[in-house]
Amino acid sequence: xxxxxxxxxxxxxxxxxxxxxxxxxxxxxxxxxxxxxxxxxxxxxxxxxxxxxxxxxxxxxxxxxxxxxxxxxxxxxxxxxxxxxxxxxxxxxxxxxxxxxxxxxxxxxxxxxxxxxxxxxxxxxxxxxxxxxxxxxxxxxxxxxxxxxxxxxxxxxxxxxxxxxxxxxxxxxxxxxxxxxxxxxxxxxxxxxxxxxxxxxxxxxxxxxxxxxxxxxxxxxxxxxxxxxxxxxxxxxxxxxxxxxxxxxxxxxx
Length: 254
Hints:
The protein is of the alpha/beta class. It has a single domain (2-253), classed as P-loop containing nucleotide triphosphate hydrolases (Rossmann fold), CATH 3.40.50.300. The protein has 10 helices and 10 strands. The strands form 2 sheets. The chain has a 6-stranded mixed β-sheet with strand order 6-7-8-3-9-10, with helices on both faces. It has a 4-stranded antiparallel β-sheet with strand order 2-1-4-5, covered by helices on one side. The N and C termini lie far apart (58 Å).
């Protein structure tokens, strides 16, 4: 299944204001891998993800999805293969009603109305948002918007799922639903996140970005428990591994 593979080679990107966001990133992700991309704010995580479905074009280096290099000509094919969930759901929702937002992609694929209906309701049910189908998108809570934004991508049945901070602003129950959803997605997943507990739950591999470079890449259980690495990259261990602060304080006073 070569179309599930993501390969990035010597990728560079500088924004118009002169900010250098990516400095020669290279990596390869194969079919079925679940990869967490972690790093402090400004490390380059969102910029990297925006290159994976062509929202940003490489200034230098290459992005390949399977056997297809990402170019202007191949952009429609790549965007059918790579489903992108943006960090801000307002960047993804623009139709009057939730149903219209989730149906937009499948309709543009030219699918029959019956297939569109099936995809929309299946995607909404998967994220626990079927009851929102007739609600105006702009009147949803932030958590509801994020759930619907994920549904818009699931309705396209992508081979590769790319998500930027998917659990941000979610209540605990919805966060758990998203984690279960991601764990059940059988194809390739690339997730930029500050939620390192979620990364441990969902991802078998983690890449640490710092100042636009990959400074570590390996098994998630190893990377996300490396105290020295996390501290040098301005990250903290997952909460579940930090222990109880009250108990720790009590032990220090003995």
